[in-house]
Each structure stands twice: as structure tokens, then as C-alpha cells.
Write a structure and sequence with these properties.
Length: 224
């Protein structure tokens, strides 16, 4: 029963935890991209490369991903991975969306990495116009690893609860069975001819009543 209860509670909890971790990763990427965009608004024209690089690197550490900052043409200004500036990222769908004035968060396959990535982009506004964009990319596999790690933590906790429940159940069962075993031992002694055997009156009310009745029976047998 305990195992069934843990499964009944654990499966919905694991699914909820999966959705929560996934949502938190996405929300963190969005908020971090917005912070970088706000900080970079006054650093694009003229581009202050060293400051932008420091900004991208510190942000990448927070989200455990790659952060790039591009100008209004999609040309790279700063990259947490250390790629030299000048390369065009205007063909990336999330960058195009940000340069049009609205951010985007998509999951797509990266030809460069040969893996699936979560791409989050936001525009860098200056005087109401998009003057550049910030893009954060994270490995989808890394997100899945974080989700699996959280689910394994829940499973480990469930295993501990199950083990503790089994130990407690065994102790309770042993405590309940002890008076029955002693009564059985007394009955065997009487059956072997020892009419002086007495059952200990202990345990639950039913067990004490049964032991009392047994002792009355043996007393009458001795008299007879």
C-alpha cells in the first residue's frame, strides 16, 4: 500500500516538477536577456566592445549558456564564447525577430553545434527603436539533464520514505505479533502436558482478552 501511495503521489509530482523546472529555465533566460538588453542600450553606438564582452560573459555564467549581442544589422558585437566580432547572425530566426522589435523564444536545431538548442532573444531599444539584439542559447540536453536530476532527487526521497515505512511497518508488525507468538508457545506447552503454562496478558485489548480466556481455560483443566 505504501508503495502504491508513493507511486500515486510521486508520478504527478515528477511531472509537475518537470514542467516547473522547464518553465524556470525559460523564464530565467528571458529575464536575463532583458537585463543584458537594458544594460547594453547605451553601449552600442559607438560599440564599447570590452564592456559588452564583460556583460555577455557574466550573463552567460548566470544562465549556463551562450550570450551574444548584435547591432541593428545582426553583426556580432560581443560573444561570451569568445568569437571575434563582425560575423552576421541576421539569418537566425530569433535574431531576426528581435531586430524587428519583438523577442522570441524557440527550440530549434543548431547546424553549427549539431544539437537542439533553446534560443531566447530580446531587442535592444534606444529611443523606441531596435538598435540591436541580445540572444541567449542553451543546450536542450542540458535542460533535460536538470529536469532528470530534479526527478531523481524526488525518486531518492521516495525511496528513503519507502525504506523508513518498511522499517516502521516491520517494527509495528513485530510488536503486534509478539503476544500472539507467546500465546502460541503457551498453547504448545499445554498441548504437551504442561498445565502450569500461563500466557502473558499483553498487547491489544483483543489479545489481552484472548490471553485471559486461555489462562482461565488452563486453570479449569488443571482443576479437572
Amino acid at each position: 500500500m505504501l508503495l502504491l501511495a508513493l507511486i500515486a503521489l510521486g508520478v504527478p509530482l515528477a511531472l509537475s516538477l518537470r514542467d516547473r523546472v522547464n518553465s524556470e529555465v525559460r523564464d530565467q533566460a528571458k529575464s536575463q536577456a532583458q537585463v543584458v538588453a537594458a544594460s547594453a542600450a547605451e553601449l552600442l553606438e559607438p560599440p564599447r566592445a570590452k564592456v559588452l564582452d564583460r556583460l555577455a560573459r557574466s550573463s552567460a555564467t548566470s544562465v549556463r549558456g551562450r550570450v551574444i549581442i548584435v547591432d541593428s544589422q545582426g553583426r556580432l558585437l560581443a560573444d561570451s564564447a569568445g568569437e571575434p566580432s563582425g560575423r552576421s547572425y541576421a539569418d537566425r530566426p530569433e535574431v531576426r525577430a528581435a531586430l524587428r522589435g519583438h523577442g522570441e523564444q524557440i527550440t530549434r536545431n543548431s547546424r553549427t553545434l549539431g544539437a537542439e538548442i533553446l534560443a531566447t532573444s530580446v531587442p535592444v531599444f534606444e529611443h523606441g527603436r531596435a538598435r540591436g539584439a541580445v540572444r541567449i542559447t542553451q543546450s536542450v540536453e542540458a535542460v533535460h539533464r536538470a529536469i532528470r536530476s530534479s526527478i531523481l532527487d524526488v525518486a531518492a526521497l521516495a525511496a528513503v520514505v519507502l525504506a523508513m515505512g518498511l522499517v516502521v511497518g516491520w517494527l509495528i508488525a513485530a510488536q503486534i505479533a509478539r503476544p500472539i507468538r507467546r500465546l502460541d508457545q503457551a498453547a504448545r506447552q499445554v498441548a504437551g502436558g504442561d498445565l502450569d503454562a500461563v500466557a502473558a496478558v499483553e498487547g491489544s485489548a483483543e489479545q489481552r482478552s484472548l490471553a485471559g480466556t486461555f489462562n482461565e481455560m488452563t486453570t479449569r483443566v488443571r482443576r479437572l
